[in-house]
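Re: weekly structure request thread

Next one in the queue (205 aa):
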Amino acid sequence: MPGSMPTHAYQILAEDLPQLCQTDEAISRKSMASSPPGKIRIMIVPDVDHMQWHISKEEFACQKIFGNVPEAKGAIAGEYGCRIWAVWAHRYYGHPDSAPQNNTLYVLRLVVENQRPTPEQLVSQIKNMKAVLQAAQAEATEWDLQCVKLWHPTPLVQQLVERSGVEYRSVEREEDSIASLRWFGDDGGKEGDLEWVASEKYAWV
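Done, posted below.
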């Protein structure tokens, strides 16, 4: 594996995406099927088409700026059934030589394969999360990106990130990049009737 990847984290290549997205979609559909009574849950399916849209945009920009494109489309760590992986995209809002301050590595989608870990599995998940996050940091450094951003982490992801020891800052978006949904329920819709699951960057254009 390339030297920029931390121990136990492996690159996700373009050819890996269809299978990983298929697994993610199956996990997501199973979770959505068990929605509590009276609760409406929606989710934009995290399929490979969504990931490739962002990646195609990144590759166009990188080819223009650098003359080549990133090989890694994300990072993965852990044993099958308990894996953690992130699919990411490089976003340049300015040229790295002149206006780099907003350039960001966005985690399009972060997947925790085992949503109900045992205490022993949780210890491994913390290590795997750390490896994936450090891989994202290394990728950002290699490609002149100023930060790594992850949107809408689940409570489990928040716990794993916090316990990983990787430095981070939590921000509530109030001014920009605010995901919005207009919903018309039978009675016009009420606050709390609807839950938007996985409002992550992959679903944002």
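The mean pLDDT is 89. Residues 119-142 form the longest helix (24 residues).
Next request, please.
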